[in-house]
Amino acid sequence: MCNLDVQSFVFAGAISSVVRPVLPPTNASLSLHITAKRYRDTKTQKRQRNVPSPGESEGLTLLFLHCVGAHKEQWEPTIQAIFERASNIREAWAFDWQNHGDAAVLNKNALSERKDDDGAVTVYDWAAAISAFVRSDHVKGHNIIPIGHSAGAATAVLTTKYLPLQPKPYPAIILVEPSVVAKELFEATIDDRMEQMEFVVRMTMTRRDHWASKDEAFAWLSKRYPWSTWDTRVVKLLADHGLEQHEDGARLKCHRKHEAVSYTQVEGHFEAAALLATISKTIPIHLVWGENEDIIPEIIRNSLSDASAGRSVTSTRVVEEAGHMIVQEKPDALANAICEVLHDYIMPCPVQTKL
What is the pLDDT of residues 2-59, one digit of tens each? Predict the structure, then answer.
């Protein structure tokens, strides 16, 4: 088992001169901060402080973007497994959406003052902030592969809206259970889509969001659906990092209202589907689905690899016994699927022979 060095970061919103020409009306990407963690193998770090191994600087930098209602630490079991199974991972970064996780706590006052669309922070806002990070000195010269889950997948695609396509910004993009759909298909299945959306919003607004302690929250969540179907490590990460301690107990960092409204902001997901037809001509797109079609039906899954619509997908993988919440349910199996993709993009270190 490899030991990971983990560092926390806070980044300002996107650069206004870069964002405003193409950003839809909300300016959350300019006024809100994002929070992140960087993961590095301590053995690699020790070598880099001395004499780096050949090829280390060419290793991949992975960016992990979570789904609605999650937070960056829920990726950690998957990140750990990837470092253990893939060679030449330079580093990994996991980010909080501006109204999720640690970012929700940091931006609490700013979020409470925003009145437009109930304070919605869209995937456009998150994508603009992530693209600003991609352009920063933190990853200058890195070989970056974004890995997004659900709304995080739409965000990963939308970052290309704010980045030059020549030279291409990424060697590949990995989309895990992407909530990306063409507008015409959404409208053709509008009754099913709206019924599903209204159900998720209703459940989000009425579910329990506070407990006496984080330990009580972990015990309560572990016995109830859907958390009882999750990997135990991810449930513990939710209790430890998805909640903040108050005088009256532990509460979810992401306000129920902010999570609920995120489900209703669909325009960015439509545009992500349209962008796939453009970027897939130059950037390899890899899809990872759960075996169970509990959220995204087959008709939408198939549409994302529809060559007749211009969406050219390099590979598609299916993780057994997983549903839409694949990151939470099967982190190790997901890591295997991601490592299969990364194998084609990792530059192996030359074998050193003794003369």
Answer: 899 999 999 987 654 444 445 454 555 567 999 999 999 998 654 444 444 434 467 9
Contact 67, 148 (CB under 8 A): no
Range 4-48+59-342 has CATH code 3.40.50.1820: yes
Residues 6+ away with beta carbon under 8 Å from 72: 35, 36, 37, 64, 66, 94, 95, 96, 101, 102, 241
Query: Do 294 and 321 meet the contact criterion of CB atoms below 8 Å apart?
Result: no
Q: What's the pTM? A: 0.92
Report yes or no: 330 and 319 within 8 Å, Cβ to Cβ: yes
Q: CB under 8 Å to 293, separation ≥6 — which residues?
A: 301, 323
Contact 341, 174 (CB under 8 A): yes
**pLDDT of 61-78, one tens digit each?**
999 999 999 999 999 999
| Beta carbons within 8 Å of 278's beta carbon, 6+ residues apart | 165, 310
User: To which residue do tokens 């050219």 refer?
Assistant: 312
Domain range summary for the chain, segments of one domain joined by +: 4-48+59-342
Integer angstrom CA distances of residue 146 from 46, 48, 93, 142, 298:
26, 24, 9, 12, 24
